[in-house]
Every structure is written in structure tokens, then in C-alpha cells.
Design brief:
Layout (H helix, E strand, L loop, with lengths): L36 H8 L2 H20 L5 E6 L1 H12 L1 H7 E7 L19 H10 L8 H12 L3 H15 L10 H7 L6 H7 L16 H6 L9
Parallel strand pairs: 1-2
Helix pairs in contact: 2-3, 3-4, 6-8
Pfam family, one: Abhydrolase_1
Keywords: Lipid degradation, Lipid metabolism
Protein name: AB hydrolase-1 domain-containing protein
């Protein structure tokens, strides 16, 4: 990389889901009030906070440390594209003054953007998430719990790894192929930065909607001043 050219900086959301000790703010954890760190992540992290709090803070931090007066180029992938769309929709002036170009890769928005046959399964997410929430199974989407399932299943033998590889390539689409050597790396990171509320938000894609998170009757009015969760655009 040319040291005199523009900086390339990776922005990471959902750092708490990594469960590293260095992200704790005090000896009691990250403002958890007795709640375990894993449960804090699986129940509290939502897309709205990523887009409207994390993204502006990260962009301002990058601008401060690079001392650059030029506008940035934001390159987002998957949920990073959704967060960029939400950020620019909610703060159009700030986005126009800070970012000169948004490059959105595989946007996690509507099902029309997905070529994978798994798009037909998305309508089933709502009842599955409702049942998971009702049975207090929210930790199923946490990083540690998912690894406990994927590692023994997909990394125990070559045939199982090949089966998992075929499932992943089917999910990622016909023009993307993951090599076998990247399987351990992939499953060591999935599902970093996710939560029940994050996945619940993504199910809005099945309805072609682009809204803020729905906290439910009463709480949405308290948090957003509206009976129904408002549109982002």
C-alpha cells in the first residue's frame, strides 16, 4: 500500500460478540448489571444501533485519526450495506458531508437481491424467531453456541466438511465458491455481531420493508414516539 495514498480502514460492529476480555469496561463486564456477556449480546444488539450509533461514531473516529479533509469511500458487505443505507437515510446531511461514495456489496435488504434458493425459506424465520424468543432460546444465535454446533458437525471429518461446503456454496449463490481450507476460518467467525434482534430485523426483507426495529406495542411508542416502527426511507 502506498503510504502517501488514502487510508484503508476496516470497520467492525458487534465487537462484544467476540467475548474478549479487553472489550470489558470494568471488572463487572460491559454494563451488564449481572447479565452474562453472551446474553447481553444476543438480546441487546440491534441493527438500528449499528447503523445510527456505531457507523457515525466509527466514521468520525476515522476522520479524526486520518486528519483527512476529503470525503471517505464506504465499502460495505451484507449487513454493512444495510447499516450504510440506514445511516444515510437517517442522517442525509452528515452522510453527504462525510462519505463521497458508498459501495454496497450483497446488500441485506430485499429478497430480490438474493439469488440463493434459500430465499424461499426466509418466510419461515418469523415463526421460528417467535418460538425461540418465547422459549428463551435467544442464545442459539450467539457466537459460542453456534460454534459448539458447527465445529463438531462440519470439522469432524472430510465428508461432513464437504457437505457443509456444498450447503454454504448453495447459500452464497452460483457465482461464489468457498474453498475447503477456508471452512475452519469461516465457522470460527460465524455468527459474529449477530443477535436475535438483528436476525429479526432481517426478516423484514420477506415483506419488502425497510423499517426501524419493531419493539412491539407500547415500547415502540416509548422509544420512537410512534405507534408503528417508522420507515427508514
Amino acid at each position: 500500500m502506498n503510504p502517501h495514498s488514502a487510508y484503508c480502514i476496516a470497520l467492525v460492529y458487534g465487537v462484544l460478540s467476540l467475548e474478549y476480555k479487553w472489550v470489558e469496561l470494568d471488572k463487572m463486564g460491559v454494563r451488564n448489571n449481572g447479565i452474562s456477556q453472551r446474553k447481553l449480546v444476543t438480546t441487546k444488539l440491534i441493527v438500528d444501533e449499528i447503523a445510527l450509533k456505531d457507523v457515525p461514531a466509527m466514521l468520525q473516529l476515522v476522520k479524526y485519526h486520518t486528519r483527512s479533509r476529503n470525503k471517505m469511500i464506504y465499502i460495505g458487505h451484507s449487513l454493512g450495506t444495510t447499516a450504510a443505507l440506514m445511516y444515510a437515510s437517517e442522517y442525509p446531511d452528515a452522510a453527504a458531508n462525510t462519505v463521497g461514495l458508498f459501495v454496497l456489496l450483497t446488500p441485506a435488504y430485499k429478497l430480490t437481491n438474493m439469488r440463493s434458493p434459500y430465499r424461499f425459506l426466509f418466510p419461515l424465520l418469523y415463526p421460528v424467531l417467535d418460538i425461540s424468543n418465547a422459549l428463551n432460546l435467544v442464545q442459539l444465535v450467539s457466537r459460542g453456541s453456534t460454534r459448539n454446533v458447527t465445529r463438531p458437525l462440519c470439522l469432524s471429518s472430510a465428508p461432513l466438511m464437504l457437505a457443509c461446503l456444498n450447503v454454504m456454496n448453495l447459500f452464497l449463490g452460483p457465482f461464489t465458491q468457498i474453498s475447503p481450507e477456508t471452512i475452519p476460518v469461516y465457522f470460527n467467525q460465524v455468527p459474529g455481531g449477530t443477535s436475535l434482534k438483528t436476525i429479526s430485523y432481517l426478516t423484514e426483507a420477506t415483506r419488502g420493508q425497510f423499517r426501524k426495529y419493531n419493539y412491539g406495542v407500547g415500547e415502540t411508542d416509548l422509544c420512537m414516539g410512534a405507534i408503528h416502527h417508522p420507515n427508514m426511507i
